[in-house]
Amino acid sequence: MGRKTIDFGETLGRYIDFAVKQGGYKTEAEYLRYLVRKDEDQNREFLLTKAAIQEGLQSGVSPKVRTAE
After folding, report:
1. Hey, where are the domains in the chain?
2. I need a labelling partner for 64 at 20 to 30 A (CA). Which of 4, 24, 42, 51 fits?
């Protein structure tokens, strides 16, 4: 996946400019990549677990009848 074009609007655009200058990032792209990586690190396990649960739900009901015994 390559280039993305995103309109953040005026307020978020100003904040991104500020964060780049104050955070020591060379470019807006560097700052945004940092944010995406941070989000990925924080949410990876949750998203993998959610996908596994969804896969299980979509697989249907097992034909085996199970009891508490």
Report:
1. 28-55
2. 51
Spatial separation of the C-alpha atoms in residues 40 and 47, rounded to whole Å: 9
Distance in angstroms (rounded) separating the CA atoms of residues 12 and 19: 10
What is the tally of helices (H) and strands (E) in the chain? 2, 0
User: At CA 20, angle to CA 14 and CA 25, rounded to 5?
Assistant: 165
Left if phi > 0, otherwise alpha if psi is -120 to 50, otherwise beta: which for 35?
Answer: alpha
Residues 44-49 have a mean pLDDT of 92
Write out the two tokens for 25.
């990032």
Distance, CA of 67 to CA of 69 (rounded, Å): 5
